């Protein structure tokens, strides 16, 4: 049976998405997931596990920012050890060495090679399998390439791996985890120090998604004077050839194909959106899956999801506008509104 995986940006969202019909939820460990904000503190993750287990569902913790080698032993001891004791089902990871260490120390935990691993070939499936991943998330670059997805899905299954695709989320230039464009704006990167509930100090770099800090999303305003000044013309020319830079996509019509293919996990992203909106999206996808499994007509559900996505797009555009403003502030082109 396919697993519907939903975002848990807050404890409230954890409860809401499971009630709405998700089989599992993912939460971000403060400082270590690929999202700025909308992560849970250590004590909140313990609480989230209690909620999830009472509902007899599954929970994964995202630690899929790039993790420095020196930090791995500390994270094993101070984070993953607790998660394992509390009953977390799996850890979502990008860094191969971290995958290896989790697998070695906690063989009972699932280790999910994150969408940030950009898994788009048999070689990559094999690579993460060798490091100890138990699930592979296929690259967003494959989101409409069913032929390749089918081949890779079969191959991953032959190695005993679970497979996952994003059915609703955002795809970056050349695939999530595979874009380097944000590095042109390194001047605007901001180190953020956070103190977790157990006193552990964690660091993020705002502006660098690989370091868990979110992105200024400059790919969405390539004709902006600041972007045109900072980025070489030939790079911009290359990027302008791409139609859907940082595309927000929803694969609702494709759900029956994924079910037929035997993909194990269908994931919805969106920790940063309002709880009721995310819960409604999860509920609509749950109904869509049920209808697909019963070979019922799905058009009504598809339309329902499209409507919800219109609302989500509005929120996303407001957020992107705020990010552009922040980028201008960091480059000293406008004054900060903070007093
Ligand atoms: S949001 Fe844009 S610039 Fe940032 S990582 Fe994604 S594609 Fe690259």
Question: What does this protein look like?
Answer:
This protein has 339 residues and is an alpha/beta fold. It has one domain: Alpha-Beta Barrel (TIM Barrel). The protein has helices at residues 11-19, 42-54, 72-86, 96-105, 122-131, 146-158, 225-230, 233-240, 255-261, 275-293, 299-330, and strands spanning 3-7, 24-28, 58-63, 90-93, 110-113, 135-137, 162-171, 190-195, 201-206, 212-213, 247-250, 265-268. Strands 1-2-3-4-5-6-7-12 form an eight-stranded parallel barrel, surrounded by seven helices. The protein has a three-stranded mixed β-sheet with strand order 8-9-10, with no helix packed on it. The chain is globular. The N and C termini lie far apart (53 Å). The model has no long low-confidence stretch (mean pLDDT 94). The structure holds iron/sulfur cluster (SF4).
Considering the chains and any ligands shown, give keywords for the structure.
339 residues; 8-stranded parallel barrel; 42% helix; 3-stranded mixed beta sheet; binds iron/sulfur cluster; TIM Barrel
Major sheet: 8 strands, parallel, barrel
What's the total number of strands?
12
Low-pLDDT parts are none
Label the overall shape: globular
Straight-line distance between termini: 53 Å
Structural class: alpha/beta
Looking at CATH, which topology would you report? Answer: TIM Barrel
**Bound chemical compounds:** iron/sulfur cluster
Strand order across the largest sheet: 1-2-3-4-5-6-7-12
Rg from Cα: 20 Å
Helix content: 40-55%
State the helix count. 11
What quaternary form is this? single chain
């Amino acid at each position: 049976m396919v697993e519907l995986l939903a975002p848990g940006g807050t404890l409230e969202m954890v409860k809401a998405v499971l009630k709405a019909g998700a089989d599992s939820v993912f939460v971000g460990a403060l400082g270590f997931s690929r999202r700025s904000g909308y992560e849970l503190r250590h004590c909140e993750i313990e609480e989230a596990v209690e909620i999830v287990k009472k509902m007899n569902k599954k929970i994964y913790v995202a630690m899929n920012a790039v993790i420095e080698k020196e930090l791995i032993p500390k994270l094993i001891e101070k984070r993953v050890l607790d998660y394992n004791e509390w009953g977390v089902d799996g850890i979502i990871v990008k860094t191969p060495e971290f995958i290896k260490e989790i697998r070695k120390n906690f063989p009972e935990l699932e280790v999910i090679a994150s969408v940030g691993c950009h898994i788009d070939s048999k070689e990559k499936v094999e690579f993460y399998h060798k490091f100890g991943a138990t699930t592979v998330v296929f690259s967003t670059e494959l989101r409409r390439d069913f032929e390749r997805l089918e081949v890779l899905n079969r191959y991953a299954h032959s190695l005993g791996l679970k497979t996952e695709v994003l059915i609703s989320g955002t795809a970056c230039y050349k695939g999530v985890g595979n874009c380097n464009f944000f590095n042109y704006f390194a001047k605007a990167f901001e180190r953020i120090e956070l103190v977790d509930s157990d006193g552990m100090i964690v660091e993020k770099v705002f502006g660098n998604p690989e370091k868990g800090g979110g992105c200024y999303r400059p790919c969405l305003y390539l004709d902006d004077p600041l972007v045109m000044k900072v980025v070489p013309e030939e790079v911009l020319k290359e990027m302008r050839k791409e139609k859907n830079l940082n595309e927000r996509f929803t694969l609702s019509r494709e759900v029956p194909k994924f079910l037929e293919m035997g993909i194990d996990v269908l994931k919805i992203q969106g920790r940063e959106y309002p709880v009721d909106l995310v819960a409604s999206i999860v509920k609509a996808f749950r109904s869509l899956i049920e209808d697909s499994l019963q070979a019922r007509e799905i058009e009504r559900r598809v339309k329902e999801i499209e409507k919800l996505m219109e609302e989500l797009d509005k929120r996303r555009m407001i957020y992107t506008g705020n990010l552009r403003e922040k980028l201008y502030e960091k480059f000293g082109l406008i004054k900060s509104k903070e007093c």
